[in-house]
Design goal:
Strand content: 15-25%
Helix content: 40-55%
Number of helices: 14
Largest sheet: 7 strands, mixed
Order of helices and strands: HHHEHEEHHEEEHEEHEHEHEHEHEHH
Strand order of the largest sheet: 1-13-12-11-2-9-10
Distance between the termini: 47 Å
Radius of gyration: 30 Å
Length: about 375
């Protein structure tokens, strides 16, 4: 269109006026003015600058599309363990409910959990090693996502996992007393409840301020977790999360995420476990903690290497700043070019103004793009 307009500018008025020199000069100026260097350079550079700033702060964006999507979020959904909490679970209490002693219960539980990287499993293994207990490799083992482990030890069926696992295999929990806040791991042998382990986690020190900052940015906050409802609500109340859904399997997390998306708009999910991979992939933006499972990191659009909760609002802020600067460049470049092009067609703009509209505007847009790297809050 621009080339056709320049050709018409050079030919049609020249045929009418006979002043070929003037109108060819005007057409050439018009071509220089309309050169899209500013857009071609500055918009990608704005996103490159955003990616660079994120990497300085331990936030890895997997491309400009991730930043673009994050800038338009309406809600942020988080997992609990390893995201809002430290993930440094410690075994607080062993409650025998059958004939087995604490050491025997802990040894069987550690044998079932020895191949797991889940923070709860790690805490059980650590407690067993601290007590100097030995635990054999299971004769057979099956990990049931969102439930726990089904293993065969000493010729007996051993179930080790959460309440859902016990209910799935019809284990009677009627003898279980009321438990204080914490994650529960049940152990059943031949579908008979033998004991319960109480493991507690600590909330990250910056979690509350991170959630508060997300709210000031106009974002709805929610928690989707597979942990028990009392524990999830306790953490949510402490950090200020508005919406809580607990006791969820991976598919149920995805269903709740889609429901929140319908109500609120574009959503980001932040998690770190292998069970979070489906919901990370299903969110508009998936963000994984760098200390999490490889499957979660692979499915995510952004990775937080610092594991700090404050990385979440920081990433959203960088994405919004990047998109805002890119839009500034588009508006500025097009506005200046349109004005100069009109002045050129009317005979009020010379070649030096055309060069400014091309190279000068491109340089100003490039400088504006790089500006994000030198924000005052950089450390």
């Amino acid at each position: 269109i621009v080339i056709a307009a320049a050709a018409l500018t050079a030919i049609v008025p020249s045929l009418i006026t006979g002043d070929w020199h003037y109108w060819i000069y005007t057409a050439l100026s018009f071509l220089v003015m309309s050169c899209p260097c500013a857009l071609v350079l500055s918009v990608p550079l704005a996103f490159f600058s955003g990616i660079g700033l994120g990497s300085r702060k331990g936030i890895l964006f997997k491309g400009g599309a991730s930043i673009e999507a994050m800038a338009q979020l309406k809600a942020v959904i988080m997992d609990k363990t390893g995201t809002l909490t430290r993930g440094d679970f410690r075994l607080q209490q062993i409650l025998p409910l059958g004939e087995m002693e604490e050491e025997r219960l802990l040894s069987l539980c550690a044998a079932c959990e020895q191949n797991s990287t889940h923070p709860i499993a790690v805490s059980i293994l650590a407690a067993a090693r601290e007590r100097g207990l030995e635990f054999p490799a299971p004769e057979a083992m099956e990990e049931i996502p969102g439930h726990g482990v089904l293993a065969r030890l000493y010729g007996e069926e051993v179930l080790c996992g959460n309440r859902k696992l016990m209910e799935k295999y019809a284990v009677d929990l009627s003898a279980l007393p009321e438990m204080p806040y914490g994650a529960e791991v049940f152990l059943a042998v031949n579908r008979r409840l033998e004991g319960c382990f109480l493991i507690s986690d600590t909330v990250k020190p910056d979690a509350s301020s991170a959630i508060s900052r997300l709210k000031t940015m106009g974002l709805h906050t929610a928690m989707l977790t597979g942990d028990s409802e009392p524990g999830a609500k306790a953490v949510a109340g402490e950090v200020g999360i508005e919406e809580v859904h607990a006791g969820l399997l991976p598919q149920q997390k995805l269903e709740h995420l889609e429901d929140i998306r319908r109500k609120r708009g574009a959503v980001m999910f932040v998690g770190d476990g292998i069970n979070d991979a489906p919901v990370l992939a299903g969110a508009d933006v998936g963000a994984a903690m760098g200390s999490g499972a490889d499957a979660a990191i692979e499915a995510a659009d952004a990775v937080f290497m610092t594991t700090a909760a404050s990385s979440v609002p920081e990433a959203v802020d960088i994405a919004r700043s990047t998109r805002r600067i890119a839009l500034q460049n588009v508006v500025f470049a097009l506005s200046v070019k349109l004005v100069v092009m009109l002045l050129g067609l009317l005979g009020h703009a010379s070649m030096w103004m055309a060069v400014f509209a091309d190279s000068g505007v491109a340089m100003l847009c490039v400088l504006n793009s790089v500006r994000i790297l030198y924000r005052k809050d950089n450390r």
